[in-house]
Design brief:
The protein has 14 helices and two strands, in the order H-H-H-E-E-H-H-H-H-H-H-H-H-H-H-H. It is mostly helical. A two-stranded antiparallel ribbon has the order 1-2. The longest helix is centred in the last third of the chain and has 63 residues.
């Protein structure tokens, strides 16, 4: 008897084994990100705590995956754990069914929490924009605490009622779609505002009277909003892929033997999301990227960093090429370009010198006029004194 009945079974178990193996690097990556974000302060305390709390909740998804997989693969039969009394209609659940309930609750809570990370960050940045002059100076721990408590209270309530079938997944998706639509609109307004503020501060910060704290806060807002933009794009792509797979399954476009594979791929994307969410987040922040590369194996590190290392024996070649570039005689085209560049620089310098001479001449004229005015004022004052003395003598 063959181990696999058909190709779909072989493909299913291949993907399942790869998923279970990939949980280990996802675990290491999530733990490393939380540790690096705690040790390396890049953003405000509230924003850092929100990112660590939400992205660190993947451990909740990891535990839920371990609890659900025995029931999902049929190792524990559900019919043996649920008994319905025909007379009273009471459903009795055995102890072996409890891990499935806990796993379903944890997974639903994680999905809702990870869906709220973008609204939470946008709200926190909105508060930072409103208090842009003083937000960086004060921790304001109550902001992140209140937001996280509200988020978890909402997620726990909806998760509890979802596993009791009070809410359907369609209602949850519609609610999240409305929340994300409002969030994207707010994000666009914040991004436009902070971009304009940053440009003004870079070009004419003295004229607008913005101090250093506001300047730094505007830059941090813009950097964090760019981070949110990348997270939004990655999450949207993952959501569209999951929606496409589910649509292909329920529309019967895929063969019946591939339905299980399509649903399995949606779980893989959700369970292994740190493998593409965390790298896309860290790649925007250089200190985080540098520290995370120390954890990644060498082969993956080269592809992630995009840097080409030089072997020890190749350093001599690099040194020789550098020396040849320094002492190489330029050709006629390069000499022409250098002459044109120097001529342009000389023209600009001469123009600046002429303008400086003109300004000095105007300043000299103004100084002469001011001196003449001072002399005339002194003469007029002397005349007034003489008239005053004459009047006093006549009196």
């Amino acid at each position: 008897m063959p181990l696999f009945e058909n190709f779909s079974d072989l493909l299913y178990w291949t993907i399942r084994i790869l998923e279970l193996i990939s949980l280990i690097p996802s675990l290491i990556l999530t733990y490393s990100f939380c540790r690096i974000a705690c040790q390396t302060r890049i953003f405000h305390f509230n924003l850092t705590i929100i990112l660590i709390s939400i992205l660190g909740q993947w451990f909740e998804c990891f535990v839920a995956r371990l609890l659900i997989i025995p029931y999902q693969e049929g190792w524990i039969a559900i019919r043996d754990t649920v008994v319905e009394d025909a007379k009273s209609g009471v459903v009795r659940v055995s102890v072996t069914f409890i891990p499935l309930l806990i796993g379903g609750f944890l997974r639903t809570h994680y999905i809702l929490s990870i869906s709220l990370v973008i609204p939470l960050v946008v709200i926190e940045r909105l508060i930072a924009s409103l208090f842009i002059r003083t937000y960086e100076k004060h921790p304001r721990v109550y902001v992140s605490t209140a937001m996280l408590l509200s988020s978890h209270a909402f997620s726990i309530l909806v998760s509890y009622r979802t596993i009791q079938w009070h809410y359907s997944y369609l209602q949850i998706l519609l609610t999240l779609a409305i929340v994300l639509s409002v969030t994207v609109s707010t994000f666009t307004i914040l991004y436009t505002y902070n971009s304009s503020v940053t440009r003004r501060l870079e070009r004419q910060h003295r004229r607008y009277g913005y101090h250093l704290g506001k300047r730094f806060q505007a830059r941090e807002n813009l950097q964090s909003l760019k981070l949110v933009r990348r997270l939004t794009v990655v999450a949207l792509v993952a959501f569209l892929v999951i929606a496409l797979l589910i649509a292909l399954v329920f529309s019967q476009i895929l063969p019946r033997s591939m339905h299980r594979i399509g649903l399995q791929l949606t779980e893989v994307i959700m369970n292994l999301n740190p493998l593409f969410i965390i790298p896309s987040t860290v790649s925007r922040i250089r200190p985080w990227k540098t520290k995370l590369l120390e954890v990644i194996p060498y082969g993956v590190r080269r592809k992630f960093s995009g840097a080409q290392s030089v072997r020890p024996l190749d350093y001599r070649v690099v040194i020789i090429r550098t020396i040849l570039k320094l002492y190489r005689v330029p050709n006629e085209r390069e000499l022409t370009a250098l002459r044109a560049e120097h001529a342009g620089v000389d023209a600009i310098n001469r123009q600046a010198i002429d303008q400086l001479k003109t300004d000095l001449a105007k300043a000299e004229e103004n100084r002469a006029g001011a001196y003449k005015l001072i002399v005339e004022t002194r003469h007029s004052n002397q005349g007034l004194r003489d008239e005053l003395a004459t009047l006093e003598d006549s009196a």
